[in-house]
Amino acid sequence: MTKLKGLLLTEGMHGMISQVEGLAKALDLDFIHEKIELNNFWKLFPPKVTPVQDFVFKNKINQQFDVVISCGRKSVIPSIYLKKKFKNKIINIHIQEPKVSLDNFDFVVAPEHDGLKGNNILTSKGAVHYLTNDELDQNENYLKSRINTKKENCYFNIRRTN
């Protein structure tokens, strides 16, 4: 059986890329990444008031894909546009609060602290990322020698409050 193909849409910032790639890897997708560029006029408007049309963004998306994973404000409209164009032939997933109706997406992955509720909402404990447990285990000694555990030499303390 062949892998599903994923199209990852972000503004190109590393924090967004790590989230979409993390989800794509978790879903075992064969994916490509598309950095979204909005046309100058539409950069000024929030997604809530932007028309869901292809003239809003510069990208010409010609690849075959089954799943669209988007993250960030600029990727909201292209994701919704592709869902409207291909309907049930694709699944669209947005990571973070999209600031538009959640019904525009098959799934929205948002951190628990955003408080989003709905049948298509999946919550996370913080940001999704592409690091696997195996990678973390393999690299746990990487910074051990640089961590100062003496309280008087720490720049800050993290305290748990109950």
What do these coordinates show?
Helix content is 20%, strand content 19%. Strands 2-1-3-4-5-6 form a six-stranded parallel β-sheet, sandwiched between helices. The protein has a single domain, classed as Rossmann fold (3-Layer(aba) Sandwich), CATH 3.40.50. The protein has 162 residues and is α/β, with parallel strands linked by helices. It is built from three helices and six strands; from the N terminus they run βαββαβββα. It starts with a strand and ends in a 24-residue tail after the last helix. It has helices at 14-26, 73-86, 133-138, and strands spanning 5-10, 30-35, 67-71, 91-95, 107-111, 121-124. Residues 153-162 have low confidence and may be disordered.
Q: Could you outline the blueprint of secondary structure elements for this entry?
A:
Blueprint lengths: L4 E6 L3 H13 L3 E6 L31 E5 L1 H14 L4 E5 L11 E5 L9 E4 L8 H6 L24
Parallel strand pairs: 1-2, 1-3, 3-4, 4-5, 5-6
**How does CATH name the architecture?**
3-Layer(aba) Sandwich
User: Which stretches are low in confidence, meaning pLDDT under 50 for 5 or more residues running?
Assistant: 153-162
Which value, in Å, is the CA radius of gyration?
A: 19 Å
Strands ordered across the widest β-sheet: 2-1-3-4-5-6
Outline of this structure?
With 162 residues, the chain is an alpha/beta fold. It has a single domain, classed as 3-Layer(aba) Sandwich (Rossmann fold).
